[in-house]
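From the shared-data thread, chain only:
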Amino acid sequence: MSDVHVPPSVTSPDLPEVREESDGPVRRHLHGIPDIRGFFRTNTAPVYFFGPTAFNLLGIDRWVRNFHYVAYYDSWDGAHPRVFSPRNKPLVEFDSGEAINNYLLRDPEVQAFIGARPGRPKVAMVFFNEETERICEELGYELILPPDTLRRRLDSKIVTTELGNEAGAASVPNVLVEVDSWHTLVRVATDAGLGTDLVVQTPYGDSGKTTFFLTSETDWDRYGAEITGQHSKVMKRINNEAIAVEAVLTRQGTIVGPFMTDLTGYPELTPYPGGWCGNDLFPEAVTPEHQAKAVDLVRRLGDRLGGEGYRGFFEVDVLIDVDSDEVYLGELNPRISGVSSLTNVTAGAYADLPLFLFHLLEYMDVDYDLDVEEINERWRELGGADAWSQLIMKEPRHTVERIVSAPRTGTYRLEPDGSMRFMRESHDWHKLEDPDECFFMRVYGAGDYRFKGADLGVLVARDRMQTPDGLTDRAGRYIEGIRALYVSEPLAGEPPVVARPAVK
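Structure, as tokens:
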């Protein structure tokens, strides 16, 4: 069979090419960014992002026609035209993001909402499991993510390290070993030339809760029970700067997004000492030399993931040794992540496409051509061309209170006296320009409970929130201003429902 092409002179520059064969139509073939952009603007396939909130991919509906969010928490109280949340939500004790997504998939209101739209639904989310896959198969939904078994295997810090080594994307000097005592730890570390100032990571879990810093037997006595019996990564402790970056493994190669710094452990934002609580994206986040090394590292890892059958979105934590200038592989998160919110709003995203759209393209019924080298070069120049930041605001106090009133989701202005003035209802943060204006997305609202670790909301602004000395003055005023808008009343005991994971 041979392709029949429309002559270039009569091909519309705004529409993707549709190839036909003698026995009927075949898949579309898109040539470059303009075709792909036009394809998504005229998309007819229903695409849904499921999550506790719409946070991770908020704003993608600006780019993709027929894109909707299905969220447990409706931060807009019904005012966002692309966010659907079931009205009937009995109190359920969720213990994970996966549990919330599976609940939403089985909810009759959600199924009716999706069933009212023609076409097989394509479903994306941050966290899922085998039950999610079974539910989607039962309902006839297409889960546009790599298989759960593969994702779980790649989620292991041990597997990530091994694959990185094979790809030439080295980790901080380490040894992969199981240890059962301080003396064993010292022996294997000394034999590997790592010294005794060590970092130990267990294979699975949030790095803020499964990364342990040990310099003495006293430290082992404190953390040893959580390390013993697990094949762990024992690393030399370095003076490092942590950088987060997202990428997409496409059939054309790995596209690397912008680099941003992490905010971790600030007691004003989180009760967890190593807990993630935000990000800064700005031109000086990494030097050109470190950026070049990091891009090469991420692309090497992406190519190796392709050998495992992976495709689509992933996030990498890169560690820069500030003493030696070496760039190391930190961790892999094989999923959409908490930094997607900033990745998808940068100058690089607007020059080409939001990074998530390259993931989505892998799961659409089209073929396409991309110049990955050209795109990576453009993102390298533009990815951090402007400043963006986000603060993940959890309840840091140990008291338990019922929320009586909470700030509305929308755009606020930071006034000279430190107060926050509501400016307007907004669907996302894409139109922010002034550093003294921010977008706040409320998570917990009136009737919910404030307790240690409760998700209050996310604040996004066009300015840095962190310097080498800590949080900026503006960040502190933003935090105090938003917290002042919450009114709550104390409770005598624990809240009737445990914490529901809302922002990841």
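DSSP finds 15 helices and 27 strands in the chain.
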